[in-house]
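Re: [ENG-882] Designed sequences occasionally contain unexpected residues at chain ends

Forwarding the minimal case from QA. Structure tokens:
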């Protein structure tokens, strides 16, 4: 059994590993970027390498031990096309960040119909997930 909490990435995504270890976590959750912004700067290559080295040094396997939490801004089921596309862009960016870091899991609240047709909302969510999987 693995147990952990949500840790901060303030100061760089690699910092999360040291914080998780210092708290005694055997697994942990984190954001991939600020959860309050739609976009963020790409990870510098040296930060990606620091993250991977810290995983090895602190005995974390990023495939099963690290579970990033998707931004609460993302709503793949939004009935408004422009907002749904903005959500999809943020979603795809987060999955690409997982790929860069070698992370195998991702926790997402996929969206809401916002009171409109639920079947249509589910269709939008499924299309977005399938499209993002094809690109990652």
């Amino acid at each position: 059994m693995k147990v952990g909490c949500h840790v901060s990435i303030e100061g760089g995504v690699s910092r999360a590993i040291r914080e998780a270890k210092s708290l005694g976590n055997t697994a942990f959750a984190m954001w991939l970027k600020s959860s309050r912004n739609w976009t963020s700067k790409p990870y510098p290559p040296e930060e990606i390498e620091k993250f991977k080295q810290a995983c090895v040094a602190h005995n974390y396997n990023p495939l099963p031990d690290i579970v990033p939490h998707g931004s609460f801004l993302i709503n793949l089921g939004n009935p408004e096309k422009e907002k749904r596309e903005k959500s999809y862009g943020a979603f795809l960016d987060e999955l690409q960040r997982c790929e860069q870091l070698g992370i195998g899991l991702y926790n997402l609240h996929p969206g809401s119909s916002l009171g409109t047709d639920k079947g249509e909302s589910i269709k939008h969510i499924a299309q977005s997930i399938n499209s993002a999987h094809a690109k990652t």
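QA comment: On inspection the terminal residues look reasonable. The helical segments are 15-22, 45-57, 62-65, 81-101, 118-135. Proposing we downgrade this to a documentation issue.
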